[in-house]
Amino acid sequence: MEFSEHIKTANVEDVVLRRPFHPPMQGTLCVTGHHLLFSNRDGDSSRLVLLLLRNIDAIEKRPSVSSGTITLKCKDLCVLQLDIPGMEECLNIARSIEYLSSLDIVSDMYPFFYRPLKLSLQDQWGLSSPEQNYAQMEELQDRWRLSHVNKDYSVCPSYPPAVIVPHSIDDETLVKVAKFRQGGRFPVLCYYHRKNGMVIMRSSQPLTGANRKRCREDELLLQAVIDGSGLGYIIDTRSNQQAQQARMTGGGFESKSSYSCWKRLHRQLERGKVLQESLIKLVEACGDHSHSVDRWLSKLENSKWLSHVHTALATAGLLAECVERDGHSVLVHGSEGTDATLLVSSLAQLILDPNTRTLDGFLGLLEREWLLAGHPFQHRCAHSAYSHARLRLEAPVFVLLLDCVWQLARQFPLAMGFSEPLLLRLAREVYASDYGTFLCNSDQERCAAGVKERTHCLFQFLLKPSEREHYSNPLYEPTELAIWPSIQPQSLQLWRGLFLRWTQHAVHLEKAQEELRNLVIECRGAS
Amino acid sequence: MEHILTPKVEEVKLLDRYTAKKPAIGTLYLTATHLIFVETSCNTRKETWMLHHLIATVEKLPLTAMGCPLHISCKNFHVAHFVISSERDCQNVHQSLVRLSQPGKVEELYAFLYNPKQDEDERRNGWGFIDSAMDFKRMGLPNEFWEMTDLNKNYELCSTYHSELGIPKTASKGTVFGSAKFRSRGRIPTLSYYHKESNAAICRCSQPLSGLSARCVEDEEMLQAISRANPKSTFMYVVDTRPKLNAMANRAAGKGYENEDNYSNICFQFVGIENIHVMRNSLQKLLEVCAMKSPTMSDYLTGLENSGWLRHIKAVMDAGVFLAKAVAEDKASVLVHCSDGWDRTAQVCSLASILLDPFYRTIKGLMVLIEKEWISMGHKFTQRCGHVDGDPKEVSPVFTQFIECLWNLMEQYPCGFEYNEKYLLEIHNHVYSCQFGNFIGNCQREREEMRLYERTFSVWPFLWENRHQYRNPLHKCSLGREVLRPSTLPLNFKFWCGMYNHFDKGMQPKQSILDHLLTITQKKAEGEKKMTDLQIQLAVMDGVLADQGSPTGTPPEQTSLSPVSVSHTAENAKPLMNGAAVEEAEIELVPTAGSEKMEPVAIEN
């Protein structure tokens, strides 16, 4: 498609750019298909500011007679301001930004145009495949098999082509189970606990409906999961009441009578609109500097963001406890099984599994549990906290995950191989990126759009030697033990690094992190 | 000890306050100074010690099926819930603790019993370790504008100040004594901090006895003298740290605040910090929040808001920032007071000093500051901390708030301070524990009357000896003379879990960055020291010291070896390096940057 037809004014001189931590700058503004380019030639030195249009969440324009001001509120929570001479130019530029920042067609997006010199499209895309993951876990192979029943995405469009299921369950059975689960998301293995052979499974809700329909194959599959070990737990990420209500719309839950060996636990995690509004309120509270301490605390409370962090960590802790301390396998699901389910299952894995706490391991976890598992990134991250657009499918589930991981890392600063900058980088990339990793809603969509052939992979890039250093935790000391977070409200904090990133506060903290890194390197060199 | 009715109770349960974990079972001992709980249910011998004087409240609850609950909460926010099987034992322990935790007189405090096996000389030297008078010298006083006077040497001018006061040179004796009569409890305007760079000064005093219309020429002269001592500025600030309403109410009682019309060139300002009673109640509410059993996030945040605690912390910080800004940016002198000038005034003057002067951000500097602004200026530690049985309305967490403001600053400037959080907690602990004499008494005069310097020990040398624990490994001296300009946006004020839930280990981060950094930097320092020793040994082996006759000897002159000769000797020493001694050396050899040339030696081995 031709971007130029949406760019009436491509260049404006004498624009003033205001942004955090920098004095106002005067220079030339240029609009391209994917970027705002601001350059300023101050004597010999020229400075360039490049802003991905996709990063712009909301735009406010205040035109006056001879000039205009555009405020750009970005998805990474940065707020910029452009003073543009000429009302006409101002309006033209605003219109271009509005259009180009919200492109809908995947193949129009910047990752398909991003061609840096250091990277080649022939490089490996993604870190690992389901086949490789399965091959690495030898100890589970006698009881679990890799099924290719979904190889053409026909059984479950949001699953990867290969998934791990109990050995005794054949593909035919899986097809039937898929029909009994919302979106075809039949129970699959997502974590095998080496210490006691227990597993974490995840799925979507069973479609029992108002008539309490049963599915023999579904019951068989779950029976095969616990196979002799007596009892399993189902953690339903909805309240009991919500689960009951879901029956009215065709959904439901595993009843005691049909699944006698499974014990259901309900933990209500918020999702969708509620979560999005929570983020909006929090960011609004963080940006309003006029209020008193009381008002701030009241707004912080009112946003409920920390409550969501609290619940997510508490539920993940419960899940990990079932597996590690009580020695039972667990199935997690809510309704669709693409949001809260993934949040809880990945946090539990971080608590239990030291392999997921390395830099490579963590990115691998995200690939398995979010990208391949079908978290609808494109829907969830279409807009962030500033947008005035009507909410559709947006929800900051992934940001919530990153926040919870940050809380874990704060409580166990030596246990994680990756650092806060990685989490911040991911929080930014998930909304607007040069890379194709977070495009689309599922593996199927990514393949169809040619994402893996025509864009670069963020995770591969982050693991390059040049980047690795920056995203590693200098204090990292691997531990084999489970890391049990404290979930007392006093132990949880607002993630200042993300939400107050553009305040002066962040500058001192960044300096301190740098200092810490230098100190550790110095000491390591000495011993 | 006549107060101990039952020295030992067995089968006592210690409950976990927050989780449903099984209670620990053990034996409870009452000694003359401590309550000790020794856990018998676990294999490792775990002990919990509580100093009697630290106990704020002991509460015996009605008998339950488990036994008789006894709730103890301490002034350092340590809380313990015991269950004692026999009600009689519980009654006895309760009664003893009530008596032991509230000594009737100062002489019963721990400091008068505590004997760290030092001799008289050490004790006396210890008291001289921190000298606040020296700090005025450091600031460049006396100078052409300011002098140190001993007008108060017999505490005739002001009974609650110490004997040496900094006052403007141009203020005559008559002015000083006249002003003292017009200030509450004779607490005249006196120097707190002198900012060399700008000639501006921070002075402190108590409220004037202005009532509805009273004036005092000497007091007006006194302020003018302070103003004149900063010749480059045309005005000075007078800051009343109270809310305006409180100050106005005081006028009716013959006290009040400065009338701008009567004093020339002053800029008068209220900053609105609440009084000690509001603060005491606020802390009470905060502690109730801390004690909630499994609260939701909303319960906690709402409780935190309702306590008002962080609002008060911000008010104190705002005032400190105002003072520092006046001095550093407006280059104007400031006179600060509240009512008596020993609570809020102490808080804001010390905070401003920390913002202005990096010296107070060092381990020793903080000692000096506390000695200067709190101890010698008559902050009523005995009453505010409730050391002895007295008026509960005099108790207030004024010092705690100061320490918390400091912690907030450290959170904002992780590289700006030489000390770490542990140091603040340790000082806070000692303020309440009364193990040392420093924080006993309400003013200098009282301390002399009690002969504290002869009968107790000073805490400062003790802290100094352990300073390696209190170091901030991230401290950067390069910040230099920088004046700190912290943000006082509400969102920068956090609940201090490390203070209020310090003893609830489950709530703290499970791994400490600070401890880790302290360990690795300590190791590095040790490695470097060994390295130097080794270089000396190698030099000896090389024959540089052949005439010494002993290859392992390390005579003092060897420490000055130049690096060149060291690397040279290292190579020559190669053939000698084998055997066990070298094995050990190998580990130490790789480290320091200065020893690069020695590396090959180690690798070859």
From TrEMBL, chain A:
One of its GO terms (biological process) is phosphatidylinositol dephosphorylation. GO terms for molecular function: protein phosphatase binding. The gene is zgc:154055. Gene3D superfamilies: Pleckstrin-homology domain (PH domain)/Phosphotyrosine-binding domain (PTB) (2.30.29.30). Belongs to the protein-tyrosine phosphatase family. Non-receptor class myotubularin subfamily. Residues 124-499 form the Myotubularin phosphatase domain. InterPro entries: Myotubularin, Myotubularin-like_Pase_dom, PH-GRAM_MTMR6-9, PH-like_dom_sf, Prot-tyrosine_phosphatase-like. It comes from the Eukaryota. One of its GO terms (cellular component) is cytoplasm. This is Myotubularin phosphatase domain-containing protein. It comes from Oncorhynchus tshawytscha. PROSITE patterns: PPASE_MYOTUBULARIN (PS51339). It holds the Pfam family Myotub-related.
From TrEMBL, chain B:
GO terms for cellular component: cytoplasm; nuclear envelope. Residues 549-568 have a biased composition (Polar residues). GO terms for molecular function: phosphatidylinositol-3,5-bisphosphate phosphatase activity; phosphatidylinositol-3-phosphate phosphatase activity. Residues 546-568 are annotated as: Disordered. SUPFAM superfamilies: (Phosphotyrosine protein) phosphatases II, PH domain-like. GO terms for biological process: phosphatidylinositol dephosphorylation. Pfam families: Myotub-related, PH-GRAM_MTMR6-like. The active site is at C338 (phosphocysteine intermediate). Keywords: Hydrolase. PROSITE patterns: PPASE_MYOTUBULARIN, TYR_PHOSPHATASE_1. This is Myotubularin phosphatase domain-containing protein. It comes from Oncorhynchus tshawytscha (Chinook salmon). The gene is MTMR8.
